[in-house]
């Protein structure tokens, strides 16, 4: 009887192991677009951008077929936890609060945030008193949202947007006085228009950007970490970075 129990136990363990094992030959990656230059749609409708190119290079290194899935930012972590996709590679800052819900890869880039406004607005974003009553745009649920809420939330009207595109449209429509954005996004979408400019100094927020996974998917996170390390060492990362930036964002 004891041998039978042992045999059954072994069979159950093997079956459970087989069910849990995953070869990760196909990986679904969520991204919130548009967030130029990190992820956005080209004129022909295809997804492009720094993180799309880097993610595809990671998948090639892993030997996996990757599928990009667009998902609004508000639901991007719930979607991961609900298994709608396997990873989030969408400029997600590594924070202590998010790390309670997801497993992060090693950081793969870091950029500062910046203030952007119409030329002649004469704003001093470092002077809290002078900002009283101003309308400030941020993307909802981002570190920039947290920064403005924590530092100016009691004197300004914080207007939160689902996408960076909507935020920029309201700035250019005169419905916002200033916006606070990841600097490269503002650089690409706002100050390419000569009527707009940066205001004050750039501000570092957060500890960098990581790929997010479900906490149980440690094997997948390990594959991403090893692939990112290889791409940073063999020059692939730098080649992709220089396609989108004139400065170094690598960490």
From TrEMBL:
<dbReference type="InterPro" id="IPR018313">
    <property type="entry name" value="SBP_3_CS"/>
</dbReference>
<protein>
    <submittedName>
        <fullName>ABC transporter substrate-binding protein</fullName>
    </submittedName>
</protein>
<dbReference type="InterPro" id="IPR001638">
    <property type="entry name" value="Solute-binding_3/MltF_N"/>
</dbReference>
<feature type="domain" description="Solute-binding protein family 3/N-terminal">
    <location>
        <begin position="26"/>
        <end position="248"/>
    </location>
</feature>
<comment type="similarity">
    <text>Belongs to the bacterial solute-binding protein 3 family.</text>
</comment>
<dbReference type="Pfam" id="PF00497">
    <property type="entry name" value="SBP_bac_3"/>
</dbReference>
<dbReference type="GO" id="GO:0030313">
    <property type="term" value="C:cell envelope"/>
</dbReference>
<feature type="signal peptide">
    <location>
        <begin position="1"/>
        <end position="21"/>
    </location>
</feature>
<keyword id="KW-0732">Signal</keyword>
